[in-house]
């Protein structure tokens, strides 16, 4: 019987965190790097994780590495099976849907609150839209994703509840992995830019109903892409 090949982890998938941000706990730095690598699919779903290899790549000891992995297990991004090993969890569309529900409702509430502000400065959002177009023009997926995230975070900043954006990040990473898989498609990226523009226009106009509708459509786009991505990357998904 043929066994499905376990996705490999490229040697350059991770960056050293041993000496970066010295005021931050090492385990926090390790967690952020591993979570980012899982979200960005540098560590692909199903990949086997070796403590020895991870410690070498990250330039850290086993203790903070194990602490970070325990946190990733809690978020459902990593599993540890005795006598089997540690691996990146496969993508479950049910988890993606749960994350979509949380994000859509929190962002809709943040948008409505932001619309209540008498002075809504959207110049920063306009600048981020321009960044997204530039990144699209040069095919910079990482840059586009960062500008995408910054735009949504700024809506929470304008609302006065930036902490709500941070609170949902662990769950949102289930959604983010699907988003990252869809980004190389130029039609998808152009659609996202159009939706971002509509959201910013609605915020500037104080159009609560229109903005909420745009956010709902925007948040659900990734689920529409789910079946095609599952067919394209079958080894990345599970029921």
Describe the protein's architecture and organization.
The chain has ten helices and five strands. Helices cover 66% and strands 6% of the residues. The protein has helices spanning 26-39, 51-58, 62-75, 93-115, 123-137, 141-159, 162-167, 169-182, 186-205, 208-232, and strands spanning 48-49, 78-81, 85-88, 91-92, 237-238. β2 and β3 form a beta hairpin. The radius of gyration is 19 Å and the shape is globular. The protein has a three-stranded antiparallel beta sheet with strand order 1-3-2. It has a two-stranded parallel ribbon with strand order 4-5. It folds into two domains: 26-89, Arc Repressor Mutant, subunit A (Orthogonal Bundle), CATH 1.10.10.10; 92-238, Up-down Bundle (Four Helix Bundle (Hemerythrin (Met), subunit A)). By secondary structure, it is mainly alpha-helical. The model is unreliable at 1-6 (pLDDT under 50).
Summarize the structure.
With 239 residues, the protein is mainly alpha-helical. It is 66% helix and 6% strand.
Write the layout of secondary structure elements.
Elements: H1 26-39, E1 48-49, H2 51-58, H3 62-75, E2 78-81, E3 85-88, E4 91-92, H4 93-115, H5 123-137, H6 141-159, H7 162-167, H8 169-182, H9 186-205, H10 208-232, E5 237-238
Question: What brief labels describe this structure?
Answer:
2 domains, disordered N terminus, Arc Repressor Mutant, subunit A, two-stranded parallel sheet, 239 residues, 10 helices, mainly alpha, Four Helix Bundle (Hemerythrin (Met), subunit A), single chain
- In CATH, the topology of the largest domain is named Four Helix Bundle (Hemerythrin (Met), subunit A)
CATH class of the largest domain: Mainly Alpha
- Helix coverage percent: 55-70%
Total strands: the figure is 5
- Proportion in β-strands: 5-15%
CATH superfamily of the largest domain: GntR ligand-binding domain-like
The 3D shape can be described as globular
Compressed to H and E, one letter per element, the order equals: HEHHEEEHHHHHHHE
Characterize the quaternary organization of these chains.
single chain
The span between the termini is 22 Å
Number of domains: 2
CATH architecture verdict of the largest domain? Up-down Bundle
Rounded Rg: 19 Å
**Main sheet summary:** 3 strands, antiparallel
- Provide the residue-averaged pLDDT: 91
Number of helices, counting only DSSP H or I runs of 4 residues or more = 10
For the largest sheet, list the strands in their spatial order. Answer: 1-3-2
Secondary-structure class = mainly alpha
Pick out the low-confidence regions.
Answer: 1-6
């Amino acid at each position: 019987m043929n066994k499905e090949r376990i996705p490999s982890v490229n040697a350059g998938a991770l960056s050293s965190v041993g000496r970066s941000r010295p005021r931050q706990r090492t385990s926090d730095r390790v967690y952020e790097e591993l979570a980012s690598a899982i979200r960005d699919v540098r560590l692909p779903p199903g990949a086997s994780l070796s403590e020895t290899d991870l410690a070498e790549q990250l330039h850290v000891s086993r203790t903070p590495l194990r602490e970070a992995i325990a946190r990733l297990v809690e978020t459902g991004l990593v599993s540890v099976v005795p006598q089997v090993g540690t691996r990146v969890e496969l993508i479950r569309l049910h988890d993606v849907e749960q994350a979509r529900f949380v994000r859509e409702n929190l962002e809709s509430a943040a948008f409505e609150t932001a619309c209540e502000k008498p002075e809504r400065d959207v110049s920063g959002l306009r600048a981020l839209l321009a960044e997204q177009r530039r990144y699209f023009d040069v095919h910079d997926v990482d840059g586009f994703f960062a500008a995408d995230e910054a735009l949504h975070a700024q809506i929470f900043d304008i609302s006065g509840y930036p902490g709500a954006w941070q609170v949902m990040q662990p769950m949102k990473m289930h959604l983010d992995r699907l988003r990252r898989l869809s980004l190389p498609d130029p039609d998808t990226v152009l659609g996202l830019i159009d939706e971002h523009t509509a959201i910013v226009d609605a915020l500037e106009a104080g159009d609560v109903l229109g903005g909420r509708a745009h956010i709902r459509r925007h948040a659900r786009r990734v689920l529409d892409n789910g079946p095609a991505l599952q067919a394209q990357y079958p080894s990345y998904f599970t029921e």
